[in-house]
Amino acid sequence: MEQSSGFTVSVVANLATGDMSEFGTRQGRLPAERNVGSVGKPTTTCVLKVARRHREAVVPQAWTPGAAGCDLHTIEGKVMQPGSRHVFRTGLAVEIPPGTYGQIAARSSLALKGILVLGGVIDQDYRGEVKIILANYSERDVFIEPQSRVAQIIIHKIFHAEVMEVGALTTSARNEGGFGSTGQ
What we know:
Layout: E1 2-4, E2 7-9, E3 49-52, E4 70-73, E5 78-80, E6 85-95, E7 100-105, H1 108-111, E8 115-118, E9 121-122, E10 129-136, E11 142-144, E12 149-157
Antiparallel strand pairs: 1-2, 3-6, 4-12, 5-11, 6-10, 7-9, 7-12, 8-10
């Protein structure tokens, strides 16, 4: 992270390139279109390296300093029929930072139309093209346009658990209560 007057400038604003020059590090403020406002200070400690594998690929970016992820675009267009699934290409490969993984998550604007992301974990040692599985759960055709934002990548820390088989687990207030067991 790089310190500047007034706030901490970090690569969360542009994880794709690591270039922070466009985010006002010299002036100690963000440009008007990237104003932090009431969101707070952007924070991160990693850089997501991105390599274009196709000339139409769009480098991911976070659209606001408070955004959890960077938007991913598809390089192909397709009409998705109701109940269909399709693997969309991004034309990008990424290098996930050590100690983290990338989660491919839905965009709320597509989810509202019934388009959801399936799967979505990118391990830190994967270097192939990032692909996104979309499913159409709506009752109508939905056209996914080339270069449109179809998902987002969110970088999470990895906590490796040591797996230990035991004869019994400790009890809890919930115990085996599953779906809907906590009330409403």
